Every structure is written in C-alpha cells, then in structure tokens.
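User
Please review the sequence:
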Amino acid sequence: MRKVILPMVLLLLSISSKSQPKKLVIIGSSTAFGTGAQPAIDSSWVRRVNYYYKYQQGVLDTVYNIALGGYDPYNGLPSWYTPAPFYSLPDPERNITKANSLAPDIIIVSFVSNNFQVGGLPTDSIMKAFQTIKDSANKEGRICFISTTQPRTQFDAASRERLKILKDSIVNRFGFYAINFFDSIVNINDNTILPQFASPFDNIHLNNAGHHMLYKQVLEKDIFNTTINRTRMSGNWNDPATWDKGIVPTAADSIAVLPGHTLVFNTSVQVRGLSVAAGGT
C-alpha cells in the first residue's frame, strides 16, 4: 500500500543554477594510487576520472589523490581515532581528516584488499572503519563514495572468497554510495582477476584495461550529479542516518522514499521533487 503524508511540504519542481567547478579527493591504497597502470599518470582510473570531468565535462577543478600503496581502512580513519594495538594508525597526511581539510565536494574512499585476507582485519572492524570514514565526511557536508573490494589473485581461495563477501557487505551497507570495483573484473569461477585485466608484473594489481573498467564504474555513478537523496532506512527527516547520501536533504535535492521506508518530519521542508515508492510512507 502506498501512502503519502506531506504536511506543509513545498516542492520546487525546477531549480536552475550554474555549478561552480568541483573538487574531488581520493583516499585509499595502491590501485587508487595508480599502481599497475602504464604510465600511471595517464592510465590509472583516477587520472581517467580527472580527465573526463575536468576536460570533457568541465565540472572539475582539482583532484587531490592522497592514496598510498599498502594502506588499509585504518590508515584512512580520522586523526582523532585511536585503533586497538597492532592495527594500522591513521595517517594525518592521507586520511579522511586530511581529505576534509581540502574542502572537496566529493570524496572517494578506495581501500580494496590490504589486510582483508582470512586472518586479517575482522569483518566488523573493516565495516566500522568504512562507516566512520563516511560519517566523518558527511558530517563536514562532503558527499562520500566507498569503493568495494577488488579481486586479488595472489590470495588463497578462502581469502579470495572473503573479498567477494566483503564486496557484498559494502554494497549492502552503502547502497548508491558504494562503487562496485569487483564484479566487472572478476573471474567468477575462482574469484581471481580476469587475465585481460591483470597486471603482468604481479598477481595483485590491474593493467590499463583493468583501470579502465574501474573508471567506468565511477562514471556510472555520475558522482557530480547527486541531486537525488534516497532513504536508507525508516527515520526522521533531520537524521543524516536516514539518508543514503548521509546528509539531510537540501532544497536542491529530489527525494526518493524507498519501499518499506517511513519518513517522519514535523516541520516545513523545501525540496526539488519527491517520489514515494509503493510501500513507502
């Protein structure tokens, strides 16, 4: 049953404004850094994203890539966070605190496999780290995307399967704001990297074709056109946790109440548009 209750809601059906050039920050590990691409400065997925949005679309001013090889999500946690003993420490020059300080519009977080093998970081620790990073970005008004894991041929079979499970967890947790770096490059028979996308120098990284596939996944998200704010769960309008975007909607947002979600508010709100799916309230 579909039910819509809209006391004192004003819907702006059209908003026109000229966007200012945007800033993008990347934090993460070696693939985000560009390892495997030849030359990395031109062929990595980050550089391709930069070229497309800056020179072809004209919406991007600056990309800050502060990713570094070998890093895991704990290196990306905010500077105030104190991990348990033996966990990686936040790097104040390459973490979410640094990313926020650069005043970006969009942040992409891409820690794809380091310490994710069986016997590595526990699943709840990985997911907590990603959530803390995203929450830290959203609190500062930044839109934040979390990339999934990617296949890693070097791992044993159990660890390769774990990367797949972690991929599903990230997609389920972050919804629209998860970027799937796994499915397009994986050999579904054994969860290795498909040969046409694997770096010829190791069993870990991607070649130019692999980086191009990740670039395509970023483009599919249309990261600079995030005017739709979807409900993540039932909840109050003013609670950021209610929203898939992680940010309370603004007048420029179109709102989508998804099936089974009840959206509650008790004040006048102004939005660009509204859709309520069957089963949404």
Q: What stands out?
A: The radius of gyration is 19 Å. Helices lie at 30-33, 40-43, 45-56, 96-101, 123-139, 157-174, 208-221. The longest strand covers residues 22-28. The chain has a mean pLDDT of 91.
